[in-house]
Amino acid sequence: LGNQNVSFELRNNVIATINNLAYFATDECYFSTTRVSITEAIIKLLFSVEVKSEVLRALGNLTQNEDVRETLIQNNFGENVSELLDSSNQELLFSVCGLLVNMVVDKRFILKQQNVIPKLIDLLRNLSENDWCLAALICQIFCNYTDELTNIEFFFNQEESDDIVTILNEFIDPVLALDYEKSEIDEDTINWLKQSWYEDFFPVACKLLQRFNNVPFNDKIN
């Protein structure tokens, strides 16, 4: 993969194959015994424009495993998350968020690095109405991040907490969230967006909002 003489097409196909193997691999198969070394190889290509999306998709499947998540941390992946979230490519953002869903299961601190939480909040606020699947992923990141929540202050500051609650209260209201009357989006896309809102976004958004409502923001950390 690191050979500069390897063509883009071949490198892309290899990473796509890794992605498929990671998705279907069991703990008993040979692939699982090599996933750490594979991760170390492909993470070096993370900022190669040609294969960045494929690398992120592969890492999204690989990070279902704790040893891979630890490998990413050891390779300073956390320092790169903020830069990846600056992308204007929604497909790439979807892959980054899918990866973060897995990472925050036991690497919660990764969201505290380099303004990752504010960037996720901005994505939730600005992109949701055109991509409820991405919005659902961001909500799932925050759900995993706050699992076994006892004190919101350990996870968010007051402004972040208020922003998330305000956004969710607006977006779980179908009258506000699904108002596409003045939109130039075609009817088929609108129907797909509405279905995605009901099936993907609404359940996880309600779960996250309920979590915030059930755990008050305290003035002091206990």
From TrEMBL:
Organism whose genome encodes this protein: Hydra vulgaris
Top-level taxon: Eukaryota
Entry's Gene Ontology BP terms? cilium organization
Official protein name in the record: Armadillo repeat-containing protein 2
Q: Which InterPro entries does this chain map to?
A: ARM-like, ARM-type_fold, ARMC2
Q: Which Gene3D superfamilies match?
A: Leucine-rich Repeat Variant (1.25.10.10)
> Which PANTHER family does the UniProt record give?
ARMADILLO REPEAT CONTAINING 2, ARMADILLO REPEAT-CONTAINING PROTEIN 2
